[in-house]
Amino acid sequence: MGLLLMCVVIVIAASERLVSADDQQQLGLSRASSTFSQNLYQKVAVKETNVVYSPYSIHSALTMTYLGAKGTTATEMTQVLGFKSVSSPHQTYHDLIADWNSQHSVEVHTCNAIFINPYEMVLPTFIDQTRDYYLATADSLDLQEPEKAINVLVANKTNNVIPQMLKPGTLDASTVLVLVNVLFFNGTWARQFRRASTTQADFHQIGGTTSKVDMMHDFESHKRVKRDNTNDLDVVALSFLGDRFSLYVAVPRKGDGITSLETLLSSPQNAEQLFEGLDFDYFHLSIPKFKIETSLELDSVLSAMGMATAFTAAADFSGINGSGGLYIDKVIHKAVIDVQETGTVAAAATVVSISKGLFMSPGAPVVADRPFVFFLRDDVTGQILFQGKFSG
């Protein structure tokens, strides 16, 4: 069984099947989130060896925060979050949350919460909107141990995969509001790998070095695959039970091909094309078992992506408290993925803190023995739940 866990936290400070959204809105939201993910990948993944993050968790937590944004702050967030073609992102997220939480073939659960400083003013309308759109619970911050309740929530909702989301001292008396998103995924492969077939194998890293990995093998794999001769890579989709969610693995054919693949992903529309044109084929598939844990502080990254005002005293989040003077203090994200023979379990959390101040002859094998990029994707909505890179 594999495990994937992601958590995002946003802190805001003060300075002195789809339920009801139409297909076009859901498609627009998935494209917005995917574009956001590829822009984020260039900032947080290209220079790293192994990384995992949840585009959904980060994007949805920021969108919940966006409920309170006004003026230039809202304009910049609209651009970064990609909402020009999405007229009702909050309602669309509401429908997606309800849809995922009702799945039975896999366990996919997402929840939201807000924690409010009891000595600070937060508009009842903002609290109501987070509840109505994001099904968010609302609780008071214990200023003696402000991180404790958040850590308990994340640990419980991720089956203790993320036991400590926030370190002591992350929050203080200037924290007005904390917004939290948690995402948990546990899926069994539609066709599992046989444990007895897993062997030690060479993994060829960038620069010519070689490491040993536990390589899983499916010698008679019947899966969707795309042989992309133009970009010199293969894309394989490993479906989970129910055939709605899949783990896509994009494997360059050359040992140093990860550089070209990451350059390709710098144009977000190219990422969407990776999921198109896959056909069923019989082939030998080899992919390593792997586990990745990532912690990200996204304040400077998001500023560089174009929403800098939200992190300054010029921010306008008057939709939260009615008077303004609030800014995003921290955006913290944690994720873990553990891919094994039986399936994948995944979880994520994001915290935003706001503070005061068919049969045919076997095809060519696909052997993931060199750095590759992966996506855990909802094939109905197009939402990318998790994205990352494994380099051994």
Automatic annotation (TrEMBL):
SMART domains per the UniProt record, alphabetical: SERPIN (SM00093)
Superkingdom: Eukaryota
Residue span(s) of domain Serpin: 38-391
PROSITE patterns membership: SERPIN (PS00284)
Pfam family of the protein (one): Serpin
GO MF annotation: an example: serine-type endopeptidase inhibitor activity
Signal sequence, start to end: 1-21
Keyword field contains Hydrolase: no
GO cellular component, one term: extracellular space
Entry keyword set: Signal
SUPFAM superfamilies with a match to the protein in the record: Serpins
Family as reported in the entry's similarity comment: Belongs to the serpin family.
PANTHER family: GH10112P-RELATED, SERINE PROTEASE INHIBITOR, SERPIN
Designated name of the protein: Leukocyte elastase inhibitor-like
